[in-house]
């Protein structure tokens, strides 16, 4: 009989499915719920258990993990008669790994405390590949004791695991992460178009750039997307648009200027307006190509 905590996993999307499967591989008893039947079948095939509702999934869980697209979805699964707070047992630990507003995380922690439920906000970075390989960066907000308790679980999902401060801190750091990633992808996309229009061997150029100061995790992860024009979503433009809204709003609240970030946020918005919202965020290349009169 495993001594590991029983886990309820809510949300089995691009990130949630491989993450929950990594917990199963690590020996955790995982019961999952999501809206898509095929995602539930995938979890059961991996050794997990499917639940027909949020309430059913969380009822006997020691730890509840949510991994859904945005604040409205977190609130939908957390609140209400069929939600987490009304059906989880007192003393359970709720770990929200979605990327949402810091204010939503702070509000959730306060509401959960009234029910005797502890909360950590623990958004991640690393994309689908990082989720599959269990090498995610996990930025956590919440009480130190709860973080210490959750650390073994986090180690089954990622490599860089840091408590950043009180409730909401994880989401604030994630917003900064998404700002850096978007600006980095935009710079890479501009470089790709510049190199191609200059007649340079693009593959060779990206190899040498990756080995110097211009190298980055973004360039390493997205190089093949640029070379092959493969924009199969690992992280969708739609979600990055949401995240740029979060960081823009949070920066305005604290009085931080984001001049470059604001421009990239508008370019992400323009991609959505042109029907590219479902593509990977490396499709920022398409926006630069349109502006440059190049192929799309």
Count of extended strands? 9
Strand content: 5-15%
Helical/strand content category: alpha/beta
Describe the main β-sheet briefly: 6 strands, parallel
Radius of gyration, taken over Cα atoms and rounded to an integer in Å: 20 Å
Low-confidence stretches: none
How do the strands of the widest beta sheet line up side by side? 3-2-1-4-5-6
**SSE run:** EHEHEHEHHEHEEHEHEHHHHHH
How much helicity do the residues have?
Answer: 40-55%
Terminal-residue CA separation: 55 Å
Q: What overall form do the CA principal axes indicate?
A: globular
The quaternary structure here is single chain
- Estimate the mean pLDDT confidence: 96
Tally of contiguous helical segments: 14
List the keywords.
296 residues; alpha/beta; 3-stranded mixed beta sheet
Plain-language structure description:
With 296 residues, the protein is α/β, with parallel strands linked by helices. 54% of the residues lie in helices and 13% in strands. The strands form two sheets. The chain has a six-stranded parallel β-sheet, sandwiched between helices. Helix 9 (169-197) runs parallel beside helix 14 (284-292). The longest helix has 29 residues, at 169-197. The protein is globular. It starts with 6 loop residues before the first strand and ends with a helix.
């Amino acid at each position: 009989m495993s001594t590991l905590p029983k886990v309820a996993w809510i949300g089995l999307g691009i990130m949630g499915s491989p993450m929950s499967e990594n917990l199963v591989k690590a020996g955790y008893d995982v019961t999952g719920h999501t809206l898509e039947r095929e995602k539930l079948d995938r979890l059961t095939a991996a050794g997990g258990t499917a639940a027909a509702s949020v309430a059913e999934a969380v009822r006997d869980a020691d730890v509840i993990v949510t991994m859904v697209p945005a604040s409205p979805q977190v609130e939908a699964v957390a609140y209400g008669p069929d939600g987490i707070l009304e059906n989880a047992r007192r003393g359970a630990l709720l770990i929200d790994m979605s990327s949402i507003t810091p204010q939503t995380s702070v509000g959730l922690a306060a509401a959960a405390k009234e029910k005797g439920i502890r909360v950590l906000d623990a958004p991640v970075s690393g994309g689908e590949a990082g989720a599959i390989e269990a090498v995610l960066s996990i930025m956590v907000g919440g009480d130190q004791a709860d973080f210490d308790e959750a650390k073994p679980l986090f180690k089954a999902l990622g490599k860089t695991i840091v408590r950043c401060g009180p409730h909401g801190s994880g989401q604030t750091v994630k917003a900064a992460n998404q700002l850096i990633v978007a600006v980095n992808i935009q710079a890479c996309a501009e470089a790709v178009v510049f190199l191609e229009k200059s007649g340079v061997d693009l593959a060779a150029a990206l190899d040498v750039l990756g080995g110097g100061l211009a190298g980055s995790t973004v360039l390493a992860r997205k190089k093949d997307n640029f070379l092959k024009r493969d924009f199969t979503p690992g992280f969708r433009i739609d979600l990055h648009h949401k995240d740029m809204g979060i960081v823009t709003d949070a920066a305005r609240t604290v009085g931080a200027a984001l001049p470059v970030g604001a421009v990239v946020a508008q370019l992400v918005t323009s991609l959505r307006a042109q029907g590219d919202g479902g593509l990977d965020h490396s499709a920022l290349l398409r926006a630069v190509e349109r502006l440059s009169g190049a192929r799309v």
